[in-house]
Amino acid sequence: MTSKASQEQNNKPENLTEKESDEFVTIKIPRTFLREWEELANEFGIPLEELLQDSIEEILKSYLAESSSIDEYLLKKNAELYRRLA
After folding, report:
1. Would you say 21 and 13 are in contact if contact means Cβ atoms under 8 Å apart?
2. How far is CA 79 from the centre of its chain?
3. Radius of gyration of the chain from Cα atoms?
4. Could you say which of 1, 14, 46, 77 is the most buried, measured as most Cβ atoms within 10 Å of its Cβ?
5. Residue 40 burial (CB < 10 Å; 0-12/13-18/19+)?
6. What pLDDT sits at residue 85?
7. How many Å from the N-terminal Cα to the C-terminal Cα in the chain?
8. How many CB atoms lie within 10 A of CB 51?
9. Where are the alpha helices (DSSP H) in the chain?
10. How many other CB atoms are found less than 10 A from the CB of residue 12?
11. For position 28, what pLDDT does the model report?
């Protein structure tokens, strides 16, 4: 029986170094979605993988910035509430 990790190791692209290939994620997406992303990558003249990585990175940055703003807002509001209660 082969472990999932060793199966993923066997599926990594040959052109990546060990460091670059530390983590892989496989997702299922509708075929139409994939075609749209492939067309967009072609329009930008970049590989599909690069477009997807950049898109995910931007989504994460946006989420983290938004999350940080929410955290700051809540801390400020809590501080105000504690001052009023004191």
Report:
1. yes
2. 33
3. 21
4. 46
5. middle
6. 82
7. 63
8. 17
9. 4-10, 31-44, 48-85
10. 13
11. 92
H-helix or E-strand spanning residue 1: none
Return the sign of the alpha-carbon dihedral for residues 26, 32, 36, 42.
positive
Task: Enter the tokens of residue 58.
Answer: 């931007």
CA 4/CA 6 separation, integer angstroms = 5
Predicted pLDDT of residue 21: 57
Alpha-carbon distance 29 to 83, whole Å? 50
What letter represents residue 4's amino acid?
Answer: K
